[in-house]
Amino acid sequence: MSRSIEDDLDRYLDAVADATAIFREAVDGYLQTDKDGSCWQQARKITEKMRTLDDLQQHLETGVYSQASAGNLISGMVDPMTGVSRLLKDMKRQITSFAVESDLSRSGVCIPQHLVPDMLQLTDEVCAAVDVLVAGYRPSLQWWKEAPSGDEDRGVSWHESQADRLSMQLLKKIFGDDALEIEAKLTLARFVEEIDRVADHAEAIDRELCATRMAGQTTADARDSH
After folding, report:
1. Could you tell me which of 28, 53, 116, 198 has the fewest CB atoms within 10 Å of its CB?
2. Domain 5-224 is found in CATH 1.20.58.220
């Protein structure tokens, strides 16, 4: 039975948005010393969400759709969906790491309180990059025909640049803090760089999707000219 590719794509985008919200909650719990074990709860949630995304990707790749252009669309989305899988695996790895570190530290995660607001701001920015990525491709078939609508000044690349700026500011604060031991500085710097990498993933996926859209437009234009 044929079904709407748009419905399946929307469910896929919903799952990515949900996973991003889980990641944001996990980072917040980690920074707030996670005394209630919430990081483990978030790790389980994102694992379940990844299973959902894997199932949806299988449906997209093997489904029978009524739209004639569906085959070209799905084949063009293989690389971007692989990028999404990498993004979520990175989120899952980070969340699991938060949970393990929280368990090992009875007094909570040793993050200087004066750095927490900046780290939360960085997290908001990288999650915004993913949120904008998802929002920019709704309705899920429209982007195949024309560029995603919205404020281009607040696109994925803009949020990625903001995340880079915030991460550099944080790294300067961390390495300029004489009260921190070198081991603590390196641990905090690694945390900042890993959070920032989420925005890098989002920008790479956005570029792949833009390339897919442009290729689709070229094919459609060539077909219409005959």
Report:
1. 116
2. yes
> In sequence order, what DSSP letters do the residues of 96-117 get, joined into one string?
HHHHHHHHH-TT-----GGGHH
Q: pLDDT value at position 149? A: 47
Largest CA distance in the chain: 71
For 80, the token pair is 């971007």
pLDDT for 184-217, tens place per residue? Answer: 999 899 999 999 999 999 999 998 888 776 765 5
So what's the pLDDT on residue 70? Answer: 62
What single DSSP character describes residue 149? P
Core vs surface per residue 128-149: b (16+ CB within 10 A) or e = bbbbbbbebbbebbebbeeebe
How many residues are recorded in the chain? 226
In this predicted structure, the answer to whether residue 225 has a pLDDT above a threshold of 60 is no
Place of tokens 């010393």: 33
The one-letter amino acid code at 193 reads E
Determine phi and psi for 65, rounding to 5 degrees: -115, 150
Report helix, strand and coil shares of the chain as percent, to nearest 5: 80, 0, 20
**Tens-digit pLDDT profile for residues 68-80:** 556 666 776 777 7
| Per-residue pLDDT, 108 | 47
CA-CA-CA-CA dihedral for 49, 190, 26, 116, to nearest 10: -150
Domain boundaries, the chain: 5-224
* 195, 167 Cβ separation under 8 angstroms: yes
